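Hi R.,

Here are the chain sequences for the assembly we discussed:
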Amino acid sequence: MTKPDTKSEPARGARASRRTTSPAGSRTARRAGSAKTETPYHHGALRDALLQAAERVLERDGLAGLTLRAVAREAGVSHAAPTHHFGDLTGLLSELAAVGFRQFNAAMAASCDAATTPLEAALARPKAYVAYAQAHPGMYSIMFRTERLDYSRPSLHAAAEASFAGLANAVGMMRQEQISGDALTLNQGAAIARAWSMVHGFTTLLLDGRLEDILSRLPEGTTAERLLEAMLTAPVAVKPSGL
Amino acid sequence: MTKPDTKSEPARGARASRRTTSPAGSRTARRAGSAKTETPYHHGALRDALLQAAERVLERDGLAGLTLRAVAREAGVSHAAPTHHFGDLTGLLSELAAVGFRQFNAAMAASCDAATTPLEAALARPKAYVAYAQAHPGMYSIMFRTERLDYSRPSLHAAAEASFAGLANAVGMMRQEQISGDALTLNQGAAIARAWSMVHGFTTLLLDGRLEDILSRLPEGTTAERLLEAMLTAPVAVKPSGL
DNA sequence: TATCCGATCTTTACGATGTAAAGATGGGGA
DNA sequence: TCCCCATCTTTACATCGTAAAGATCGGATA
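And here is the predicted structure of the full complex:
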């Protein structure tokens, strides 16, 4: 009854004719060659290509534009191809978030290694955290948009876990304690929660534009990074609480 | 060509027959009467009814279930009725978020008024913040899901602004300073950013289940509220930064 | 080397959603 | 009394996620 999905997915129009005219043998030859932009019938590395396409779509069109069909279009394959590799939309988003966490962890590790002074070392990690989010806002927002993610996926679970472990480790070093794997004191937990909450909260507020108000009221030319630094290093309030 | 949208929206099936059999006059009488569950043709207060329906749907079915059509179904009207009152989905979500911010502000104000000791006063606001989010997770997540919101809407802008003003004011009282409306020192901005980032970050991490790991490692029976308290009051780390 | 299995990708189909546009309804002012 | 127009419904359509069946090879097996 419904008009079939024709027309909306031109996708591999060029390939259709090529496929009919080219005998089987040329496919492997083409893949071995440099013409990676052409799409042989069996893509060969569609999974990775789809993830890269998804990242492009996400950073170009935002979260709203990140659909299974849009990713398939971007990668030049049929709209149902992603389903085969990721199961469903949640699967694709979860794997993409895992990619994000790995980039994220790598960026923070690199930044920590580059630090020389103790103060630098203390600020390197949070600065890299915020910098990654600013450079890849789409990725960051996906990584923390839990309702569309499946944390039981091994790759995502592992990547996110590594991120947490790095944080806990950094806090432990800061407190000159060994954070053991299984048990925490209330003070240790509070220190970790404070560090994570502060940086994560700052980042989401920043990405949501919620800090514009504050930034615009600060002395001319104060950047978000400067505000972050002040937030992390400034003396604490007069009253008993950390507020 | 496409099969018309019949069947999927039974909605007011009962009303259709009623409308044909009942002459015009009885409508006002019915609305004035107690039968609010029955749906007169011109609803009379559809806008508010839709917002209440939306809140029910949101807390019952989560963000994924919150669609224009689901809200219309819940309110017992045709699927296109919400469009007339809110323009589009963004409009509905924005107005719902505004409702949320008003509830949120009221809850925090009430909690502050109830405080007696200085320590209580310092903790009342963040505790109420987290408590609201835990009691209304759907509402809270909508209020901070910026990509689907339109902050240029007066009601949402005003409600969110009031929330920010309350926070800035609380921080000012804590520092025993007057926070002037137009300009801030770096330290003042940092104090506001720290307070907001910490509580907002903690809340989102908590709702996303990201603190489970920490909570499960803490002494038996430690609640999220207790962790929050410790995070806000515990002495700060050894090293120079607030980390 | 010829054959066939199964992984990979495409086609087709369907229900649901957001939104636009045109039609019905009736409250309230002219 | 009559008619305007805000309110709500109907109809229509493009797009999306997903399921299921068909096409297309790479490579193991014989």
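Chain A is about 65% helix and 0% strand. Residues 1-2, 4-6, 11-12, 41-44, 46, 77-81, 84-85 of chain A lie near DNA strand C (CB under 10 Å from a C1').

Let me know if anything looks off.

Best,
T.
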